Amino acid sequence: MTPAPRPGRTLARMTGILTARPVPARSKAFDLLLAGSLCMVFGLLSIAQAGFEGILGFGMLVPLIWRRTHPALVFFGVSAVASVQWLFGAQLMPANVGLLVALYTISVYGEVRYSRIALGIGGLGVLMATSRYWTNSDWRQQVTMMVALGALVFGVWAFGERRRTRGLYVAQLEERADQLERDRDREAKLAVSNERTRIAREIHDVVAHGLSIMIVQADGGLYAADKSPEQAKKALATIGDTGRASLTEMRKMLGLLKQDEQPGLDPNQPRPQPGVSSLPELIDNVRDAGLTVDYEVTGEPRDLEALLGLTAYRIVQEGLTNTLKHAGPGARTSVLLDFGHEMLTVVVTDDGRGAGVAPSADPGHGLVGMRQRASISGGTVSAGPKAGGGYEVIAKLPYHLPTGGDQ
Q: Could you give the CA distance from residue 375 to residue 395 in angstroms, rounded to a whole number?
């Protein structure tokens, strides 16, 4: 099991997403305009107020051009210039506003750890400024200035942190929306793939069953052509009817492949599929092909879900198809539907040669297809030769999917 991410790691990851975004050109242009305006106003005022020392003011304003691309470097650089100002005893000047801009920037765009360090440096700067520039004031004025400067520094930093939190929230919402969109697209593709696989299985069952009947009828008609023309005509008629019915059903299946591409069609519209009620017609068609089939229903019949009914129908159809292919001439087949208390049992047996159903490497064919269909409904299929000859297919299909366990 993958451990849940800790809140600190989540915050760091989301901060990385926020800071890793490329800076738009208009934001860079704004920073250039901001730094230029501050230099023109506060830089020139600093020179007018402090003379030559006012040049230090430009060292606190010019770096603001890169405040978004390198917030930590800009803040520490501006702080270094302010430290030089303090060491040489230069007076406070209007250009010191660059410190507040840099502090705000690192609290918004910088890493969390650097933002905390910047707040500590800002608090240290308040103490240094108070000790340097208000030494001749009484203690009340010193405390007042210390509190005022501290409130200003903390207020600027807190406002930046609020902007950061809002940015992280928006970034998290965008990431979640992107993830939901990716999940939706993946589920849509998976649904389309599953639908196409189901349709391919249906086409195989329809074509295989129809062709098996047509082959048997064609062989019988060829054999009876000289001795019994009426039997040959009947076989040809059965071939034609079976071919047309199979072609019609196959066209319906192929039409489903194009349904998603046709506007105005509801993809959730129910699609009629054969069920256990269609088995008598299926068995009559097989009987017309010359195969002797006994059909029996035991237990109390009930209405089945569409998927379960279709599964039972296709298993019987596949069993009869393979009997036509492998059981040989004169084989007798029986189909049993047993409506038990908890499950439907489908049994298809024959007394032919017992060649059975060879498992196929392609999903959806032969015995593999039977087991795959049954597993979707939570059931099982067993197949194999019978003692004394013949072949037997037994499918156990629960009326409801089992709950619990790994599905």
A: 10
| Residue in the structure block whose two tokens are 């600027």 | 156
Q: Is 388 helix (H, G, I), strand (E, B) or coil?
A: coil
**Which residues in 315-347 are b (16+ Cβ under 10 Å) and which e?**
bbbbbbbbbbbbbeeebebbbbbebeeebbbbb
Question: Which are the contacts of 320, defined by CB distance < 8 A and separation ≥ 6?
Answer: 209, 282, 283, 286, 291, 293, 333, 335, 348
In the chain, what are the domain boundaries? 7-183, 277-407
Note the CATH number of domain 277-407: 3.30.565.10
Distance CA 312, CA 276 (A): 7
Distance CA 62, CA 40 (A): 11
Backbone region of residue 53 per phi and psi (left: phi > 0; alpha: psi in -120 to 50; beta: other values):
alpha
| pLDDT tens figures, 135-185 | 777 788 888 888 998 999 999 999 988 988 888 888 888 888 888 888 887
Write the pLDDT tens digit of every residue in 310-322. Answer: 889 889 988 888 8
Helix locations, 269-406, DSSP H: 279-288, 306-326, 366-376
